[in-house]
Amino acid sequence: MSSVAASLRAGAITLLLLSPALAQQDIYSRMDRIHPVYAPHGMVASQERLATEVGVDILKAGGNAVDAAVAVGFALAVTLPQAGNLGGGGFMLVHDAASGDTAAIDYRETAPAAATRDMYLDTDGNADPNLSRFTPLAIGVPGTVAGLALALERYGTMPLADVLAPAIRLAEDGFEVTAELSQSLKRSQERLSQWPSTAAIFYKPDGATYEPGETLMQPDLAASLGAIAMEGPAAFYEGDIAEAIAAEMERSGGLITRDDLSAYKAIVREPVAGTYRGYDIRSMPPPSSGGTHIVQILNILEGFDVAELGAGSAAAIHLMAEAMKRAYADRSAFLGDSDFVEVPLAGLTSKAYAASLRGGIDADRATPSETIAPGTSLAHESDQTTHFSVIDANGNAVSNTYTLNFGYGMGLVAEGTGILLNNEMDDFSAKPGVPNAYGLIGGEANAIEAGKRPLSSMSPTIVLKDGKVFLVAGSPGGSRIITTTLQIIMNVIDHGMNVAEASVAPRIHHQWLPDELRVEEGLSPDTIRLLEEKGHVIALKSTMGSTQSILRRDDGALFGASDPRRATSLTAGH
Ligand code: GLY
Q1: How far is the CA of 546 from the centre of ligand 1 (A)?
Q2: Is-contact 37 559, C-beta < 8 A?
Q3: Within-domain flag for 109
Q4: Is position 331 within any domain?
Q5: Which of 438, 484, 544 to mutate to test the pocket of ligand 1 (most atoms within 8 A of CB)?
Q6: 20 to 30 A Cα–Cα from 388, which one of 85, 93, 438, 482?
Q7: Do you find a cis peptide bond into 233, omega within 30 degrees of 0?
Q8: Which residues are catalytic?
């Protein structure tokens, strides 16, 4: 059994040994349970150790949660090239303790001006996944630099150059390649090496890969980060970096022009707001579907006594799966970039609509997906997104998820910049009704249009209790981001797990189509049998997500946990 599977089983066993009353006693720090990382002042949870350390150093130096988060975002672009990025996009939720407000920063990629609705159709009118995933036509206008700079300008306290300094150092001096990065680069070698600009950075001149413990230096990336430190985001969107990206597009056949780059704007939006059993939920609005469906699923489940049914019970998992499939069916029809299409957000997140959906759930039988809505799906999946969470000593919090889409995105580095470019355009519906790489089906609402943002599942979330930060959560995982984040929230609120237990507990996922209930190792065979008896088709899959979560106690003490499913993660504080 893998160590992760062993860890998941250990988590399941520990949870089984707890009576519900005991479980509710202390969700923070009891030492006879799997315990989280504790810190009294500030904390960072990210998927890569060096980036977490960068964030903690910023907090120790007096920076606030946003200063630390922006530094982590830039550092991950160096140390976690699979997902950390400058050439992609994402979403950041910022909670300001002084005002009690939470803002959602949307720095999702946009479709270039030359993008058209049918750009991924072949001559027979069929969607060609190769075009939307593996050619430079897949690249959207990157938003990360604009988003991180906007967050810092609005909510940070430190100069951009100061929060960029650690990332520049890591790129210039290099860092020790981990076993995970070494393996990942080996696995991706064929795809990445087709681009000489990428091969020159991530592989040795003779084509050999970097072994664990060897140093990976990225001088071009250091120079790009240095230019951003000196000139601000204009270096990326109008300066030399913009020129290099536009030149790369011309050379390799992509659509992004200098005009596309100079027109890019990160946007501050109102978060999706909901409630769950007395807690306030704040999460990402469109162009993400994440917040909408987390709130929708929680609303449906609020009408059931999930705590009484018990964590990991077939009865609870059945209800969760039924709620999930109804939400994902709605996703396919209604969700898209709300700057371009009408998204019925109020309706989807209303308690009344949830009650009507709940009324259609049979506690004993799975509803076949085809009777909820029609569709088909693909098996291919990839989940190289990454999430990080930060809370500072004043109770300010950041929940950030960003991505290149696939691991290393398109795999193409814009020559001379060290910057990997995304393949986010595949998150649009190439043809309404045809699934994307995550098997997610989109409709007209997510059709391609110039300047539009492709629909996402990224779900950075902040849970508030009495107006103060209680839980910061989020995850990578493609279509499973929504349900993984949901389960962290439910494990804490419904099942009284501390944040480490909530992270370890085995996960499930249903996305309407395919009509299968995905489960991780760790569910008992009895539970699986009971679910099958209710009519679920069980698919035992590899682990889902890589959560990075922090729980804040009323007195400000912080308890965090990095998902054991990823080897390089670290939660640390001071
Ligand atoms: N590229 C995955 C997502 O945004 O959901």
Answers
A1: 14
A2: yes
A3: yes
A4: yes
A5: 438
A6: 438
A7: no
A8: 385
pLDDT of residue 340: 96
- Give me the phi and psi of 125, to 5 degrees please: 85, 10
Ligand 1 atom showing the smallest separation from residue 438 Cα = 2
- Convert the pLDDT of each residue in 533-548 to its tens digit: 999 999 998 999 999 9
Rounded-to-integer distance, Cα 185 and Cα 199, Å:
10
Q: In this structure, what DSSP letter does residue 445 have? A: G
CA of 456 relative to ligand 1 center, distance in Å: 4
Last-in-domain residue among 446, 465, 480 = 446
Can you tell me which residue has the tokens 């890569």? Answer: 48
Atom of ligand 1 nearest to the CA of 405: 1
Residue whose CA lies nearest to ligand 1 atom number 4: 456
**Pairing mode, if any, of strands 101-107 and 548-552?**
unpaired
What pTM was computed for the model? 0.94
The rounded distance, in Å, linking the Cα atoms of 491 and 498 is: 8
**In this structure, are residues 546 and 566 in contact, taking their beta carbons and an 8 Å threshold?**
yes
Distance 23 CA to ligand 1 centre (A): 34
Nearest Cα neighbor of 120 from 141, 99, 135 is: 135
Q: What is the pLDDT of residue 434?
A: 80
Quote the number of domains for the chain.
2
Pocket of ligand 1 (CB under 6 A): 385, 403, 405, 424, 427, 456-458, 478
Residue 431 has pLDDT above 60, yes or no: yes
The pair of three-digit structure tokens given for residue 546, joined into one six-digit string: 């890589």
Nearest atom in ligand 1 to the alpha carbon of residue 454 is 4
